[in-house]
Amino acid sequence: MKEDIYDEYSEDQVRKLYKKRKKLKLKRRFKLFVIFALSFIIGGYFISDLSKVKSISIVGNTSVESSTIEKASSLNKKTTYLFINKGDVEDKIKSLPLIKKANVYYDVLGNVTIEIEESKQVAYCVINGKTYVLDELGSVVETKDKNIKEKLKSFPKLSKFKDLKFLKKFSKEYPQVPDVIKGQTSDIVYSPKKADETRIRFILDNGKELIVRLESMVDVLNKFSFEANMNINSDKCTFDFNGSRVYMSKCKDSK
Asked: Considering the entire predicted model, what is its pTM?
């Protein structure tokens, strides 16, 4: 008969292994609990109103309605503000006429601020009773705002532009006209003639006129030494740019 040998060392090893496994199980359970709790909290946060946009403030706009900007931004009280793609929202807003820049900010409470920089208005035109604004970016936008219409009176007025399509073509070119000429222009008149359908007259503050054709307007006016010609040819009132030539006519009161 074999004698049973009591091995105290082996028994301690078994107990240690048992305790170690128990601790590992507890750690796993704790980790699963933490993951579940965090998932529950995060999920609940995004579902709740805490993660949604609380307010939308639009600043810097005077010509473009805040409601128009907010609609273009696609932001509303159901939007999760942490998921806002600021670059995408800014691009959407900048696609609006008369908007030059847009910056979107939000705080940890979900308050969104949209800062707007509008493009400068450079001229206006009335066609069939509708008032259109031309801006520095070459856009043409109808406005019904009485305050804006009143402010537009300080800008050059475009007259006899009966075709909106032609007006838009002009608006794309006009920003490239030298500032010194734009700054001294009071009126711009569409004055087509037979076989000269794109003829336009710039009437200056001093009463002189620059006559151009739309297709060559930017090129000829940028090559024209405006200030020098106003001094050297002070007795001339009309400067007609036709091709590479400038035809000048004396003022009526000049001898």
From this structure: 0.73
